[in-house]
Amino acid sequence: MSSEPVIAFNSVWKKYSRHQVLNNSLRDELVSVITGKKCRAELANGEFWALKDISLTVGNGECIGLYGPNGSGKSTILKLISNVTYPTKGDITVHGRVAPLIELGAGMHPDLTGIENIYMNGAILGLTIREINHKQQEIIEFSGLEEFINAPVKKYSSGMYLRLAFSIAVHSPADIFLFDEVLAVGDEEFQSKCINKIESLRALYKTIVVVSHDIDSLENIADKVFYITRST
Amino acid sequence: MFKRLYTYKDLLLVFIWREFLIRYKQTAIGVLWAILQPVSLMLLFTFIFGVVLHTTQKNYPYTLFYFAGVLPWTFFSGSTNFAVTSLSGNFNLVTKIYFPREIIPLSGVAINFIDYLIGLSVYFMLLLFYGVPLTWNFLWLFPLLIMLVLYTTSVSLLLAALNVYYRDVKLATTFLIQFLFFATPVIYSIDAVDNKWKLLLFLNPLTFIVENMRRVTIEGRGIVVWQMVAESVGILLFYFIVYRIFIRIERAFADVI
Question: What are the tens digits of pLDDT across the range B70-90?
Fold first, then answer.
């Protein structure tokens, strides 16, 4: 296991707004297109810091857990790693392809069949069409849905739906896997399947970040667990 | 933009393919809708303006005249209509996973373009059927197509991005598209318009595109080069500005959507 960092947060700050529409935000962005200056770093009315001065590094092949109360910014960290959002202040460097399992089946469409959704979700998770062709059989086998794979996903039970989504996600060739509360869904059999799969990903020296409320299972699978407290 | 898209070309292809599948899933006649929609509009206009109101549109067949206008118009309105809600409607993707956001509105432009190509082949069959002689001038259709696609893409990206911030955009677009329909020579010819209004109408790039698409195919006439240059420069400039803005505000989409 090498200790070269694949994810590095250097005093990262992230602010959010409580308001539904950020009246100023579009104007700010447009002004900065013209003037080229950065976004304002101070808090305006109704804004708050979701992350305050977070620094952390994750080495290659490490598995870390994030644990903390609701609203402490765990998911925000995952979103920053996967580049969905950007930090207000500070730098983030990420080396390698990220598979964000932030919400299973985010790209699923109910009218499409299982096979069609494998392509859809696979592509969203960063697989190329060729890689999906290659792994299709493996994904179907892992999900155990051979009989239903040509049925539209809307006919699936929610358990079947999750199994398909999970199999697609863990067959991504990414280097960094982000799991958000994935351990909290599905039946016991599915949960143990999840944990087994995380173990086998670790055996392949993939870097893994897991967010969970279940401290026991977190401490089981992760090398390090970070406790994140709500910033005030 | 093309460099960014090349890295994600498989995702774009899958998105186009998905939209295409969804569109014709559980439909009885499937892809025939791509032909049925413009053809029924064309027949409607032919009936109202030709049979009921007896307006004359130069001296070519009504069906050809309206079809030539309806096709690019359906492409433009279909794409922009799709684009407006494309980002805000896919918020579960936008807030969870990173990919170049323009892929979603662009996939809408692409499927509408497929429909447009199907419509164009019907149009060429109609031209043959009416025995309209094709001249080399019809090759102008290709640069006009590029201009139409580029302009439609720019408008789609702009509306999609703005609707992430303000849902008013969606409501305004319905009106805007109706308004543009009358500002574009779909059901009339620019030749029937007074000179003082012509200049105003040409501020709308669609006017130039639609009018000339008709002209180079049915009439076999060439285009006016300085007009073409001016309109192309305008469209390119518009595209660059919109794309610059899009890239800038794209990263904030997940926070405001």
Answer: 999 999 999 999 999 999 888
Q: What is the DSSP secondary-structure string of A21-78? A: S-HHHHHHHHHHHHH-PPPP-S--TTEEEEEEEEEEEEETT-EEEEE--TTSSHHHHH
Residue B244: helix, strand or coil by DSSP? helix
B248·A124 Cβ contact <8 A? no
* A224 phi/psi in degrees, rounded to 5: -135, 140
Structure tokens at A117: 């959704």
Residues B142-179: tens digit of each pLDDT? 999 999 999 999 999 999 999 988 888 999 999 999 99
Indicate whether this complex's ipTM tops 0.85: no
In the structure encoding, which two tokens stand for residue B229, read together? 């240059």
* Cα dist from A214 to A66, A79, A185, A186, B176, whole Å: 10, 20, 12, 14, 52
Q: Whole-angstrom Cα distance, residue B177 to residue B187?
A: 15
Is residue A76 within 8 A of residue A231, CB to CB? The reply is: no
Q: Could you write out the DSSP letters of every residue in A110-135?
A: TTSBHHHHHHHHHHHTT--HHHHHHH
Q: Which residues are bridge partners to A226 per DSSP?
A: A66
Q: Tell me if chain A has a CB within 8 Å of the CB of B3.
A: no
DSSP A158: H
Where are chain B's structural domains?
A: 2-256
Task: Taking each helix axis as running N to C, give the angle between helix B9-24 and helix A129-143, from 0 to 180 degrees, rounded to the nearest 10.
Answer: 60
Rg for chain B, CA atoms, rounded: 19
B200 contacts chain A (CB < 8 A): no
- Spell out which residues of chain A touch residue B17, defining contact as CB-CB under 8 Å: 119
For the record, the structure tokens of B236 come out as 């390119």
Concatenated DSSP letters of B97-149: --S-TTHHHHHHHHHHHHHHHHHHHHHHHHHHHTTPPP-GGGGGHHHHHHHHH
CA distance linking residue A99 with residue A106, whole number of Å = 13
User: Side chain identity at A176, as an amino acid letter?
Assistant: I
The alpha carbon of residue B118 is apart from the nearest alpha carbon of chain A, in Å, by: 24
Of the partner residues A30, A125, A128, the one whose CB lies closest to the CB of residue B245: A30
Measured between beta carbons, the chain A residues lying within 8 angstroms of B166 are 21, 26
- For the record, the structure tokens of A224 come out as 């390090």
